[in-house]
Amino acid sequence: MTIGLITDLAVGADAGGSQTWSRQTDMLEGVSIGAPPDLFNGQGQDWGLAAFSPFGLKRSGFRSFIDMLRSAFAHAGGLRIDHILGLMRLWLVPHGASPTEGGYLSYPLEDMLRLVALESWRHRGIVIGEDLGTVAPGFRQRLAARGILGMQVLWFEQDEEQHYLAAGEWSPDAMATTSTHDLPTVAGWWAGRDIEWRSRLGLLKSTQSAESEQQVRRQERAKLATTLGLLGGTPTAETLEAADIPASQVLNACARHLGATPRR
């Protein structure tokens, strides 16, 4: 393993935890980090985490941010920054409000990117940014200019006709992965378990139902199986039901597919 372990830098801290207690002037009170409504979650999200104050960071010379970076790099060959979109702006939700009632707060992106680059160089570690969600225009280009890898997830890599991209069409400026910690696994996606749970938890949009989403998933399974070479040709009415293919076979095909991309 040339790189070794890659540590994870969380997007925020528990509002009642040691960081918010010991670095009070660097943290915001009365709001929590979340995400606006998007294709993944039509109701928005509230993660219940406390955020840095951009003004507090500047006043302290980014002391807490630097300490956090150095701790994360200390024993690792790389660092994954969760929700790296937050280095530019964070969706903050007032306590007691719904996620749709939140708003964006801007952060000193260039200062924070410079510090990430500096600590990466000092510790000889790579940096991966989880750049998934509602991404500001030009943000990924700014990460690439700093040598920070983005993340491209199999489920989202589709063309304008919603066909999954061939391996050679993936960009080299990101890490290739089938899924993330808050997206379904290959086996779970193939079986539609994520749809079952989203329905059970009331996370579907008003225009969606478990039945309609499972119908869409049947079509997506066929498209993915075609891209992976498990069906052959373009999906037709006869090949739309691909569920009979074992999940283990799909998992192996996904691994081969990612291995054939031009990713580093």
TrEMBL record:
Pfam families: Glyco_hydro_77. One of its GO terms (molecular function) is 4-alpha-glucanotransferase activity. It comes from the Bacteria. One of its GO terms (biological process) is carbohydrate metabolic process. It is an enzyme of class 2 (transferase). Its EC number is 2.4.1.25. It catalyses: Transfers a segment of a (1->4)-alpha-D-glucan to a new position in an acceptor, which may be glucose or a (1->4)-alpha-D-glucan. The keyword Glycosyltransferase applies. This is 4-alpha-glucanotransferase. The lineage of its organism: Bacteria, Pseudomonadati, Pseudomonadota, Gammaproteobacteria, Oceanospirillales.
